[in-house]
Protein 1
Amino acid sequence: MQQSWDPRGEAGAALRRAVEGFGSQVLGSADMLSGLLEDDVPHLPREVALLTAAARSGTSARLAERVRQGISPDQAVSMAAADMATRTAMDASGAQWAVGEFARVLGHPIQVATSPAPTPLAEPEASTLLPPPPVPATNTAAVLAERDLTVIADGAAPPSRGLAGTAAVATGLAGALSLFWLLADFTGAFEVITVLQNIVLLVASVAAAIWVAGKARRGGGFAAVFGITAAGISGAIYYVAFAAEISFLSSGRDRALEVAMGLLLAATAIAACLALTGLARGHYLARHKVRAAARVTALAGGGFALANIIPQQSYGGSSYSIFIGSGIHGWWILWAIMFLVLVALPPLLGLFIPRPDVLRAMLLGWLAFGLSWQISWIPVHNERAAPGLYVTSILWLIVLVGTIVIAAGRPAAQPAVAGPS
């Protein structure tokens, strides 16, 4: 029975977005392609299964080889579809459609694939042929270059579960170690604030750890981990330095606090590095046309870091911020500079993340750190909120709203490589 696949072209558009964002090698990585398509078009499970099967059966390599041999794109599609149907016992029309979509994103002008011919080897009719593009591209590298996109090496591989598992352990450990800051033995309102900010870090870290461990090849988990730990390195450095200056604790408790904070810094830094490696290895970072919501959140996130230069609190006529205060001197100035860089890094790096779901995850991780940081500046007793605290709070809220907008939006479909549909 004749069957129409992807009548609105949504799955084909999702496949094009995957190639545009992550390079041609995504067509040979079934697990990665499946995750991308399931996130983009979850309402098209049949089409996603067909395209994933095409990736698993080596369709991209077969098409490229046959075109190099001088075989016409349409005949190459028919031959690859027949081979795929034989290998997978898949419906012939479905195989023809899936291979046709692969050929289209590789830049080969072929017949419309949503209503395939009755048999996989049937010759296309001239009336159904689409006109070639103004500047024909013979391979994926040329297509990506024409669109000013980064071409990623075909030898790269998606992130492994081992990498994700290690990142999950380091992230969860960092969240648990942050609770050891309670050994500093603060009292009253200071203790409440300390408990609140570290509970936020713990919950967010555990959530990110579960996310990256459960969906190692989706990118969102790595992004969430990087969002909270890259910025969190600055907080961990602060804890290490402050713990070394505390003199009112017993020697045993003081030693335990210093060791715990040192481990916290190590775990946070390891988690951030592993997360960045996972994002790079999974090809989740690429140059692309940045949408307005992503630009706004990047600017607000970078502004949040810079706004910490402005006094956040005042007490007894004195003002305090990361650069201002009686205790800010020497290497604390270096720490403040590192704070500016590390806290601004995740939202700014978001400008190079084309997938909205991965960008959303990174911003969620960053928002968790930002919330914890804002809690630490809550005025208590005779302290007063300074102008900087209002500015940073507003900027944090802008990032929150931007994240919601990014999460609610979906990428718009783009024209097919072979011509208008």
Protein 2
Amino acid sequence: MKPNQKSLEAYITLEPYLNDLQSTVREAIKHIQPCTDNEIIDFLGINPSTVRPRRIELMRLGVIEVDGEKTQKNGRKATTWRIKKW
């Protein structure tokens, strides 16, 4: 499937405008994808109340997308995230 040219252009335009925390979370997801919020938090060693809002912002901006689900150590299911494929 070819990338949507307008979406790709929008992403390229958006990329330089991600703030430092958004970029940090994006790079963590890129490095460990697919990953849950808790895996991002553990990887970065940053407070969950900092990571989760940045992940939500990245999702709303279309930078990341749902990859699936994973069962965590506590037995609960969690959504996994990946960098959006263009």
Protein 3
Amino acid sequence: MRAELRRYGIPRRDVAALARRFLSDGEAQKILLSRADDGTYSIDVRLFDVARDLLEAIAQGAAVQLQGETDAPVTTDIHRLIRLPGSLHGGTGFRVVPLAREAVDAFDPFRDALLGPIDGPTQRVTFTETVEYPFPGGVRGSPGQTDELATPVALFLLLRREAELPPSPA
């Protein structure tokens, strides 16, 4: 990218501002179009070539800068690299749910990633820890307390070792 910018005589300190201007809505057109005295616009071919080359160089540089930092614990742990949609997380029993970027803020795993319906089958558990979770309807428990919970909620607590199944009848 630097070589491309040097080729056009763009100082390095101006690159970020130029990139923002190109990426702002309509700004690239203003740069590429020149206005004639009669009010008509025409594309300055020289500017178009320069702009195209600069945009390519800026896009390549921006892609590297926008990648962000690598999440080292995730990257080095082979168990976290692939989450197949619909598969279950081994520590929570939550389903892997693909999300569109717009849906991230509204997503609640205690509601939207449950294995089954909250009003479906139930399972009796005995709490081994004091718990409080924001599942629909809420879940609270104290050590030794027994409760009948929706199966996905019971699974969550069992996997986290915060509850256990009562002994089976002999």
